[in-house]
Amino acid sequence: MTATAPRIDQVFDLDALLTEDEREWQQRARTIAQERIAPIIEDDFENKHFRRELVKVMGDAGFLGMHLKGYGCAGAGAVAYGLVCLELEAADSGWRTFVSVQGSLAMSAIHKYGSEEQKQRWLPGMAAGDLIGCFALTEPQGGSDPAAMTTVARRDGDEWVIDGAKRWIGLASLADVAVVWARVDDPSGAYGEGGSAVRGFLVPTSTPGFTATPIDGKLSMRASVQCDLDFDGVRVPAEAMLPGASGLSGPFGCLNEARYGIVWGAMGAARSCLEAALERSVTREVFGKPIGANQLTQAKLADMFVEVEKGVLLALHLGRLKERGALTPAQISVGKLNSVREALEIAHQARSILAGDGITNAFPVMRHAANLESVRTYEGTDEIHQLVLGRALTGIAAF
């Protein structure tokens, strides 16, 4: 005789800590994740297919740049945005990544640092899902060291000319506009603090010399798009520069927005893995009883559940801090490091409960585990966040 596993949220009442508006955002995201993404995600992952028609669905739902105010954006709270990230990543990390690249990176850069003309030109279409943006910071040899940036922009009359390369740029081959970070030779200090300043530029992807090549051979994030970018004499007008960003504090301000979303999102992937393992534990029988009747299996489930709930409570705490304007980069590093590290361990434990079937696409666990390896790497590796926290604790930078 088999049983049905209870819902995880029946054991731990998170809803009691949320507002009605936050619960509505979460339910909207859960519905889209379960009805529009979950039925097709295994095929999309297998076929390396990004389902572009869902971009408009995300826009219509208000998810794109939802934490921003004005220009067609929803102006939702930080916790509401986090809950949307959680539900989307419970379906697949690629779709939380899309919302993050579009809203937390590209749109945030324009919203934070753009001119009014730039905001009016791009943000309403991006919020609606009619336009796609990307965020071009990481370079082939740079990785976690953006200060070593080699992409350069030089002034030529009324234009900027950009040359260089970027790597692992999400959505770039689909994007209408790229937020490109480049080093500007600026001995006069006209565009920064003098010498060589990092500045952001809005580059329409149709500009001659801009080439985006999707990266193939990925064993992770296969239903998502990441690209190599080449800039060969890309010319943009002087007003393409983001006026409000100078130095690496510009892109870092956007990265912190994206990292915050990951704190929540990784817990969505973890919850999905736990749910799969829990359901299997009460429906699969071995030696005449459900495997969930074994003490070792129950111990694994209990430990997984504790880490999911601790991670969600940490995310909620960070969200409340963010809403008060009190969230620090070091606190975000705590969340990103913990959520992704624990989500991966939960995926591994869930796979063990699923036994051999756990490596098949009959269950989402191996796909989540593969995706989480990418999430663990981007927006700061474990090691980078450990160093951020080490600096906060000791006052000594060990980078």
From TrEMBL:
Cofactors: FAD
Coiled-coil region list: none
GO terms under biological process: fatty acid beta-oxidation using acyl-CoA dehydrogenase; fatty-acyl-CoA biosynthetic process
InterPro entries recorded: Acyl-CoA_DH_CS (IPR006089), Acyl-CoA_Oxase/DH_mid-dom (IPR006091), Acyl-CoA_Oxase/DH_mid-dom_sf (IPR046373), AcylCo_DH-like_C (IPR036250), AcylCo_DH/oxidase_C (IPR009075), AcylCoA_DH/ox_N (IPR013786), AcylCoA_DH/ox_N_sf (IPR037069), AcylCoA_DH/oxidase_NM_dom_sf (IPR009100)
EC number of the protein: 1.3.8.6
Domain Acyl-CoA dehydrogenase/oxidase C-terminal per the UniProt entry, residue ranges: 253-393
Domain (Acyl-CoA oxidase/dehydrogenase middle) ranges: 134-234
One Pfam family linked to the record: Acyl-CoA_dh_1
Catalyzed reactions: glutaryl-CoA + oxidized [electron-transfer flavoprotein] + 2 H(+) = (2E)-butenoyl-CoA + reduced [electron-transfer flavoprotein] + CO2
UniProt keyword list: FAD, Flavoprotein, Oxidoreductase, Transit peptide
Main enzyme class: oxidoreductase
Gene Ontology MF term list: fatty-acyl-CoA binding; flavin adenine dinucleotide binding; glutaryl-CoA dehydrogenase activity
Keyword Oxidoreductase: yes
Start and end residues of each Acyl-CoA dehydrogenase/oxidase N-terminal domain: 19-130
Similarity section: Belongs to the acyl-CoA dehydrogenase family.
Protein name, per record: glutaryl-CoA dehydrogenase (ETF)
Naturally occurring in which organism (per UniProt): Agromyces terreus
